[in-house]
Amino acid sequence: MTNNYWNKKINDNFNNAAYRYSKYSLVQKYFANKLLIIIKELEPQIGGWIDLGAGTGYLADLLEKNFMNINVIRIDLSPNMLKENKKNSQTILWDLNNDLPPYINKASLIISSFCFHWLNEPEEKLREWYDRLVPGGFLIVLFPNNESFPEWKDTCKKNKLEYSGLSLPCTNTLKKFVKKDEIFQIKKFIYKETFPNIYKLFKSIINVGAHTSQSRRKTVSELKLMQKKWPKDQYQKVNLTWSISVLILKK
């Protein structure tokens, strides 16, 4: 699958989900609030604040509400997502697989949440984004890492089914793309979702447009097998465990 076709599939799926994204993006909203706490503790300089992969603007809205005199520039590839941002927001339609616009420079805070892992070569973007910071500026990248979704992976492996989830970044590997003294902090969080069955689980992924896959679509019989074999809790419900990394670089 070529990058152009893959990127179009990603964009189409998020575009189509834009109108319902705010209702169903519970994980993303939970971690937006986590990021708000982290940023308050960092006390970044007042200046250019950029949200890469801003989506419908939930995180940018939080930042503008909680910090005085802050106007967050919201960048995203999906026009429909940007249309969901509040009126008079500063939005830029842009493919983050490309270099950032040249006028995005001297930023005191660049933040990206639940976007980084969708890029073609995410590791290469760390250096580029970092270089757009002013001295003392922060780059914060939040992403689900390769330890996510063990229930899904184990169910597929034990039953000889193809795992159709996205290949996610490894935090330790990312460290090789930045200098040791540029890493200010790395945080890790575990978040568990619970669903009545796997059909609701996968529907939740579709509802936010995050279902783009390089794998073929599962057959009805394969889905039934996954539902039967997926580990259940004491209430016969299924869980999906996210492992979330927050990489914080300081210039």
Walk me through what this model shows.
By secondary structure, this protein is of the alpha/beta class. The chain contains nine helices and seven strands, in the order ααβαβαββαβααβααβ. The chain has one domain (3-146, 167-192, 244-250): Rossmann fold. The protein has helices spanning 3-24, 26-42, 58-66, 79-83, 122-131, 150-158, 171-174, 198-207, 220-229; strands at 48-52, 72-76, 91-93, 107-113, 133-144, 183-195, 238-250. It has a seven-stranded mixed beta sheet with strand order 3-2-1-4-5-7-6, with helices on both faces. The protein is globular. The protein starts with a helix and ends with a strand. The model has no long low-confidence stretch (mean pLDDT 95).
Task: Give short descriptive properties of this protein.
251 residues; alpha/beta; Rossmann fold; seven-stranded mixed beta sheet; globular
Summarize the structure.
With 251 residues, the chain is α/β, with parallel strands linked by helices. It has helices spanning 3-24, 26-42, 58-66, 79-83, 122-131, 150-158, 171-174, 198-207, 220-229, and strands at 48-52, 72-76, 91-93, 107-113, 133-144, 183-195, 238-250.
Strand segment tally: 7
Largest sheet: number of strands, sense, barrel closure: 7 strands, mixed
State the oligomer: single chain
**What fold name stands as the CATH topology?**
Rossmann fold
Regarding CATH, which class?
Answer: Alpha Beta
Q: Average pLDDT, to the nearest integer?
A: 95
Report the CATH superfamily. Answer: Vaccinia Virus protein VP39
